[in-house]
Amino acid sequence: MGDKYGQVVAGGNGIGNRLDQLNGPTDVLVDKKSDSLIICDTGRVVRWSRQNGTTHGEILIDDINCYGLAMDDDGYLYASDTDKDEVRRYQIGDKNGTLVAGGHGKGTGLNQFKESRCFFVDRQQTVYVSDWNNYRVMKWNRGATEGIVIAGGHGYGSALNMVSYPHGLFVDTLGTIYVVDTGFNRVMRWPKGAKQGTVIAGGNGEGNGTNQFHSPVDLSFDRYGNLYVVDIHNHRVQRFSIE
Question: What's in the GO CC field (predicted)?
Fold first, then answer.
């Protein structure tokens, strides 16, 4: 801690698809087992060793329009594909993976998405997906062939039973969902089984006030329960103390 300047640990050699380049990366996670970074890059998922002197990565998965990544406690890698509207689970080294959510084309069916973006995987390997253009959050239990709507699903709007353009999400050990509602500039909390959520941050219109957002996209919690929200068009991250 205390560094005033960052260190380039992957890419940095211009935009491109060479093994020493990246092209619009959207997500990254640390694989502690292999001491490497796994990166969601345009058209592929790549791995870069964290060892000093690393000059290029290796392709783990190709032919994928990857948007988000996750890794479960067993070391399985999950990646979302916004072109195929699906999430797959991979063993490292397996380029095909196993379909765990979506994968039946764009649509409103319970086995479909309309642009699957962010997702979350819990300890039971349940997959929660922000279904961006269907205005809903879906839950896919392990081995399920279709999902369950657990937030939203009532069209576009600001009512408490709606989420409009859901994006970043987090699910706690009680099954409570925290989701960024980008469309109405708010963060909502949905207890397990709830028919509607509550607004815990934002929801006061688009703006740059400390109680407002302008297109929030992602969230995270620290160990003290503080909420951090990425407020993209205000070019800031805000912290909230949540009850």
Answer: extracellular region
